Amino acid sequence: MGSGLKPSSMSFIILLLNSVLLNLSLMASKTPDPTPAAWPLQFHAITFMNNSGTLQKIDLWYDWPNGRNFNIIQNQLGKLIYDLEWDNGTSYHYTVGSSQECSVSHLSVGILRPNWLEGATYLGQQEFDGFLCNVWEKVDFIWYYEDVITKRPVHWVYYSGYTAHVMTFEVGAVLDDAEWQAPAYCFKEPQKDDTPAVVSIANSGLSNGRLMWEMFNNASMNL
Ligand SMILES: *[C@@H]1O[C@H](CO)[C@@H](O)[C@H](O)[C@H]1NC(C)=O
Ligand SMILES: *[C@@H]1O[C@H](CO)[C@@H](O)[C@H](O)[C@H]1NC(C)=O
Ligand SMILES: *[C@@H]1O[C@H](CO)[C@@H](O)[C@H](O)[C@H]1NC(C)=O
């Protein structure tokens, strides 16, 4: 009397408790897939790029609060090309010095959002360039490798095979405002004989994620 629970109900409670604990441990072991770190709002990175054997060094200045992104592209033993993108869709591609080439393009998309990798599919871990990385793929557009420990990008590959190796990644670095001014010859009325220079520069600067994204979207729409 007064002992309360009968042995049978006692064992029922133990059974119940066991199954609760088992479920809890199962839930704990099923951790969600890691997600790529959002891009810092401002950073400077130096990347080495390989476009089907054509090598480039790119100084990338990402500046989200000011709605601008700069790719300063040194082609190996070749042209130095400035590829300045504004979030309103306008891009200036130009050279400086004696050649003074410039082409202006208007894309339908702004610069990459800091969270542009959101929704990417996790592919697991892989060692790349000597770093243990988490790897994601986004809509067959990009494969992205991020250092497991520091969360810094190490490497990415666009659908075209264009690859990036990240050499430096300085969070918070900002390029002086004066450097973002496209030269005066970008703003003069185009002359008829400008076309060859404009075409050569536009073709040599296939660098930025935004342009590739628009081309990719256009290509997917035509499928
Ligand atoms: C660049 O990529 C090509 C393949 O597209 C490869 O054959 C070549 O070895 C790469 N070059 C470097 C320096 O990684
Ligand atoms: C976008 O912004 C840049 C920089 O302020 C400017 O030079 C360009 O004319 C603008 N483009 C449009 C379409 O307003
Ligand atoms: C994408 O398609 C639009 C509309 O057809 C076109 O204006 C734009 O130039 C295309 N962009 C690229 C990068 O091919």
UniProtKB/TrEMBL annotation:
Extract the InterPro entries matched here: At4g14100-like (IPR038941)
Q: Which residues form the signal peptide?
A: 1-28
Q: Which UniProt keywords apply?
A: Signal
| The protein's name in its UniProt record | Transferase, transferring glycosyl groups
Lineage, broadest ranks? Eukaryota, Viridiplantae, Streptophyta, Embryophyta, Tracheophyta
